[in-house]
Amino acid sequence: MSSAEISMKPPNTTLFPYKIIEETAPTNQATKRPSDSISDTQYWRYDVSQKRQKHGAGDGDKLCFKFVSSGSCPRGNKCNFLHDTEAREQYMRGVCFDFINKGKCERGPDCNFKHSLQDEDEGFASRRSGSENAKSSRSKRCWFCLSSPDVESHLIISIGESYYCALAKGPLVEDQVLVIPVEHSANTLSLPPECEIELDRFQKSLKMYFRTQGKEVVFFEWIFKRGTHANIQVKEICF
Fold first, then answer.
1. What pLDDT does residue 129 have?
2. Zinc fingers (C3H1-type) span which residues (predicted)?
């Protein structure tokens, strides 16, 4: 086969998608790839105007809750929902996710978030008050919050600065006790470190009491993803 036949271009072929237009440059400089040097035949691969700046690869119009609530999504460009930075800013200003996503909220007046778009100054000024109102609303319905009208005050044994001790309402064993944070918190791990000092005092006192009864105790806490008010279970062990 001759050299002409070898170099002949076969029919029905397309350009190599990574081919760069040749340009004259000094031999002592590294070859660069400016954006205007990309062949028009394969520019579809780099067209910035076609890229989605606000969402993942999905073509839907629904927002990604993970991105809006946390600012990132582990699925990245493979996510089927929108990654909208403006929606993220509105969420950070206390606007309801359902209102941002659907334009309405089924919870209505019972919702703890805002149902109107917020300017930057308005959201910053009212973010703290909105958080306090939400916490107050939860306290009114929580059985373990001391400020709640539903708290079983006759079961309370002792009240400290960060924790209080109470008898269990429906004990599984005799003399079952609960050590409960005064602050409405989903788990004790989210409380400040200084609260552990008082918790340790409660635990030592309970151990001493049960030893006078010839018993030992175990302390454990159930931590749920959607936990409400933390409580440490104190259960006796008989010998």
1. 53
2. 58-86, 90-118
CA nearest to 114, candidates 123, 124, 125:
123
Q: Which residues of 124-153 are buried (b: 16+ CB within 10 A; e: fewer)?
A: eeeeeebeeeeeeeebeebebbbebeebee
Residue 170: which CATH number? 3.30.428.10
Q: Is the pLDDT of residue 234 over 80?
A: yes
Q: Does 115 share its domain with 158?
A: no
CA dihedral 78, 82, 85, 90 (to 10 degrees): -140
Angle between helices 85-92 and 120-141 (to 10 degrees): 60
- Is 132 in the same domain as 35? yes
- Which one of 101, 118, 141 terminates a domain? 141
The reply to whether 130 and 78 lie within a common domain is yes
Domain count, the chain: 2
Q: Which of 33-47, 189-203, 215-229 has the lowest mean pLDDT?
A: 33-47
- Beta partners for residue 233, in sequence order: 178, 220
Chain Cα centroid distance, residue 160: 31
Strand 177-181 with 215-221, pairing: unpaired
Q: Are residues 33 and 133 in the same domain?
A: yes
